[in-house]
Amino acid sequence: MVTPLQPVSVARAAVAESGCGMRAVRIDEFGGPEVLVPVEVPDPVPGAGEVLVRVAAAGVNRVDALLRAGRYHRAGRPPLIPGGEAAGVVVEVGEGVTGFAPGQRVMALDGGRSSGFYAELATVSADNVVELPDGLDLTRAATLPIAWLSAWYCVRRLARVSKDDTVVVKAAASGVGTAAVQIAAEAGARVIALAGSAEKAAWAGEFGADVTVDTSAHPDEAEVEEVLRLTDGRGAEVVLDTVGGQAFGRSLREVAYGGRVVALANVALEPSTVDTRDFYPKNASILGFQLTNLQIHGYDPRPDLRELAERVAAGAYRVPIETVVPLEEARAAHERLARRDNRGKIVLAVGQ
Predict the structure, then answer these.
(1) Three-state SS for 139?
(2) Considering the entire predicted model, what is its pTM?
(3) Quick one: which of 57, 82, 48 has its CA closest to 132?
(4) What's the whole-number mean pLDDT along residues 246-266?
(5) Cα(86)–Cα(88) distance, integer angstroms
(6) In three state form, how does the secondary structure of 236-285 look?
(7) Residue among 163, 320, 180 nearest 241 (CA)
């Protein structure tokens, strides 16, 4: 039986009260990066089925920005401590938890069931915690549970990419994009990486893309024409749409007969205009992905996270990290994220 997830606000309310204790960054009202306020709050206490983690590093993601702005569908109400992924060391385990002990190095995924990882200490459901293999440092590990897991699931499980496929990856210089390029290339696929500038396209090419396209030089319908040209008019067997909005309509025109379009984001934050004639004559499939809702409906992320962590530790994938900033500079990290000019992940250094 699947246990319903608590709203984020319920899970975090116990630690989002003023007082002395651990360092954290809190949202007291929705808004821009300026609402990320360093505070001291009481240490959280693990409940039944939970693990208390001393956070070493926390990944900064677009979902954190959506939560901060009040635009995330499971945001709840402030006060909130954001942060959906982290790595650190187990401090304590709650009643009924087995397989974890103090001192273990772990990575953790929020999934709507943590106290928030922009903090020195966080409680999280044991179902969302994975022990780290040797060779994987805590900073890189903190970037895997959202962007990398999303790319892994979409490429490996949803689209089932193989050596016979051509795969278009949109926003290929993003966290999900650079991960997807590498995972698809490892599967033997021909990868076409689309990015929003010549510099970003060239950078995406460093991760194994066979062809790169600067979409600023091929806007709107020119993008579709370029993808069709690169596939001899056939289209791509898989289009990984990490952009949404109007880009999704183009994805449907870029997919091949019998192909798969995977929709996993709408960073454009705009409606998508779709003409059904762009896909139903092709017998194409449209596959949706949203990580938290997948967990709500029974997905256990631990097997995939373990395999992904082992592949990274073995050197199969390169995890690009652009910058690491102190926890107290979360506002600057979100401002950097909003400019969309970062290459690689932004990570908060919380403690070691």
Answers:
(1) helix
(2) 0.90
(3) 57
(4) 94
(5) 7
(6) EEEEEECCCCHHHHHHHHHEEEEEEEEECCCCCCCCCCCCHHHCHHHCCE
(7) 180
